[in-house]
């Protein structure tokens, strides 16, 4: 399979050999010929020999050789001219902004939660708890909160998947790719989402807890 466009899945690349130009009532402005090279062929050497030996023989009558370009460059030019590149940039920017909002929201929530329990941390320290033990306890609590929230939201997510028709296998894509397998796709995306949320929660918990655990118990219990 060959990836024709950056926004498309890989598909079969058909190279058709024509002995002559098809007979039409109109003449195309341009004819494109595709060459597929073997893996052990040096592309730079091929281009140099092609321009030196083949190009002079292609200028016949009203037909002339314009340029020799790589398929990747032609694909990139098409993507820029058709707006595919700008669309993908916009989607990536919106996804990054949404992820940043989730990161700031979760980090802020867990940060405030840890700072609000500074007295509890001071009390635990005065009773002999170590900094590592306090950090592990708060990280475990953060893991439990994220896990419970994720498990509770799974039924609603599954219902949304079936209601939107996402669970129905598509006939357009290649079923060999996991993106076109609804159950595998849902499992992988859900797992990645859980891992991202868990990492954000642990980061938002570790920093304030580590800072609060370094404070002396008397100072932490001052307002108690």
Question: How would you describe the overall organization of this protein?
Answer:
By secondary structure, the chain is mainly alpha-helical. The chain has two domains: 13-81, no CATH class; 94-221, no CATH class. The protein is built from seven helices and no strands. The protein has helices at residues 43-54, 71-82, 84-115, 118-126, 131-163, 182-213, 217-220. Helix 5 (131-163) runs antiparallel to helix 6 (182-213). The longest helix has 33 residues, at 131-163. The radius of gyration is 30 Å and the shape is elongated. It starts with 42 loop residues before the first helix and ends with a helix. The mean pLDDT is 80.
| Fraction of helical residues | 55-70%
The helix/strand class is mainly alpha
The counted number of beta strands is 0
Rg estimate, integer Å: 30 Å
Low-confidence stretches: none
Distance, first to last CA: 67 Å
Based on CA inertia axes, which overall geometry fits? elongated
User: Treating each run of at least 4 consecutive H or I residues as one helix, how many helices?
Assistant: 7
Share in β-strands: under 5%
Q: Main sheet?
A: none
């Amino acid at each position: 399979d060959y990836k024709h466009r950056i926004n498309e899945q890989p598909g079969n690349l058909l190279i058709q050999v024509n002995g002559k130009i098809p007979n039409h009532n109109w003449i195309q402005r341009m004819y494109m010929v595709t060459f597929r090279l073997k893996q052990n062929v040096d592309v730079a050497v091929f281009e140099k020999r092609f321009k030196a030996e083949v190009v002079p023989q292609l200028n016949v009558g009203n037909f002339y050789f314009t340029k020799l370009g790589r398929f990747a460059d032609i694909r990139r030019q098409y993507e820029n001219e058709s707006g595919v590149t700008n669309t993908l940039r916009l989607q990536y920017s919106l996804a990054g902004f949404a992820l940043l909002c989730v990161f700031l929201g979760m980090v802020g929530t867990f940060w405030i939660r840890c700072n609000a329990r500074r007295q509890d941390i001071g009390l635990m320290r005065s009773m002999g708890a170590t900094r590592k033990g306090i950090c592990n306890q708060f990280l475990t609590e953060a893991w439990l909160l994220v896990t419970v929230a994720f498990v509770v939201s799974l039924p609603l997510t599954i219902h949304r998947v079936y209601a939107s028709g996402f669970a129905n296998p598509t006939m357009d894509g290649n079923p060999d790719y996991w993106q076109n397998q609804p159950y595998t796709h849902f499992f992988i995306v859900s797992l990645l989402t859980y891992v991202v949320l868990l990492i954000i929660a642990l980061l938002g918990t570790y920093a304030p807890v580590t800072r609060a655990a370094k404070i002396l118990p008397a100072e932490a219990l001052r307002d108690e």
